[in-house]
Input
Amino acid sequence: MTTSLPTLRDWVQSVAAITLPENVHWCDGSDSEYKMLIQMMTKSGSLIELNQKEYPDCYLHRSDPSDVARVEHLTFICTTKQEDAGPNNHWMSPEKGHKKIDNLFKKAMAGRTMYVIPYCMGPIDSPYSRLGVEITDSAYVVINMKLMTRMGREALKRIELEKTFVKGLHSIGDLNPKKRFIMHFPEELSIKSIGSGYGGNALLGKKCHALRIASWQARQEGWLAEHMLIVGIEKPNGDIHYIACAFPSACGKTNLAMLIPPASQPGWKIWTLGDDIAWLHLDEFGQMRAINPEAGYFGVVPGTNPKTNRNAYDMIQSETIFTNVGLTKDNQPWWEDKKTGQPDINWLGKKYDKGEGPAAHPNSRFTVSAKNNASYSRLAESPEGVPISAIVFGGRRKKLAPLVYEAKSWQHGVLIGASVASETTAAAIGDVGVIRRDPMAMKPFCGYNFADYWQHWLSFSDRTKKLPKIFHVNWFRQDKLGKFLWPGFGENLRVLSWIIDRCENQVDAQDTAIGYLPHTKDINTDDLEISNETMKELLSVKKESWIDEMKSVGKYLQSYGERLPNALLKNQEEVLKMLMD
Ligand code: OXD
Ligand code: MN
Output
């Protein structure tokens, strides 16, 4: 296989001339190709076949111990002007960026196969989808891209027709963290990544393309590329509302996207469209519609059990690639909180010893096709996407944020999104549990200056009167002893149900300075062991703390300087004033 598109052919040839691979393999995306690669990798030891009776077609990959998460400190946005990347990104000039990384690509693929992966982000026939080609020397990347994107022949056909695609060049290099860089050149629609074979650093269709580059393209073209799950919530009367939720990494997006209604909520159903990324467009009638650019899940494994996420637990019993989990004696994958089996070997391949840390790495992952999920929505393949009724922001906040509240307007909702803060998790290298601002859950993923991004968000209210309502949720509020106040998981449906009632104008709410809050009676707590006091606490707004919060938000926003949209600051000042009155 090769291509009739000269720009693609020339680019592949020029990359080969620098990286000097032994072979070039154009990926056709077929099942036989996938099988061939699995066989090759199991033979070489880079994949371990798991217990095929219990886990058919499941494999384990162990990444280098120094390469287990995204590396935000080594991720750069390379724009001509530094202000275009903004204070939210690490910046390098395109000239310096290319020079630095091109040096590392010299002979990087010597003795290896170079794979050329044409892929489509989004349903293959959707006008909202975008195309890319990833060149990589990692067979692990190829098999993951097969599960995570629409890749191969069909994608190439569309690339040849449209002639525009994002160029992604990746090599694992020598996995030396000192020679690891993830660079984005949004003005050229290109990505170069070297030195890591892990997740978002290496599967370039995901964070690099579908968020960082796509957010840049989206601003130019009038849409939004967001770190959001998309889920359909079917009410007992059969009506379905689609909502998009932005939570920071490892804050339960996958669990919410696959939620199973508890027995106490008969008649409700949940349909998954996506668990990580949403592309949002206004259609010709001004309705916001969403597609999921991905075709699979790259989810955090630890904590997955029949109680927390039955759908995910079942879905990863077959046709799954596990990365960095432990093993039982009979070669089944094992992770913390699996609730069954015993670890024998840890994620490093060593005999498990409780004193030496967890069996599975806290950021260990599963890769699986979205079609394996029992709650997969039939509209996930729909080229026109789904209409969005509500956008929901959230984060991990031990204190402060109530269980749920609603923005008073689109502009106020943008302020709420811009103010999102959360405790950091193991999804990225760095301290865990530290509160940081993570606007719209996009801190690591926005490919341009946040000030311009907020302006772009605000501009949607000039374009349509039909925008979704905006909400904020916090499943993670704790009492003084550090115990979670809200049961979470399936019970979150009770909160979603209030959100839907609000979208349908079925219930009124308390009008407070921070937004509209539910009356305690409107969150259904039937069959739930939760006291009235706890509910009150969950919905309480501590004035002094919120005054501090809004002051801190004001300071944060102002750090964006002159490009900060006035409307955002005006909204923050209004909320602060109402709190102080
Ligand atoms: C992810 C992340 O892997 O957000 O989805 O880190
Ligand atoms: Mn994510």
About this structure: The chain has a mean pLDDT of 96.
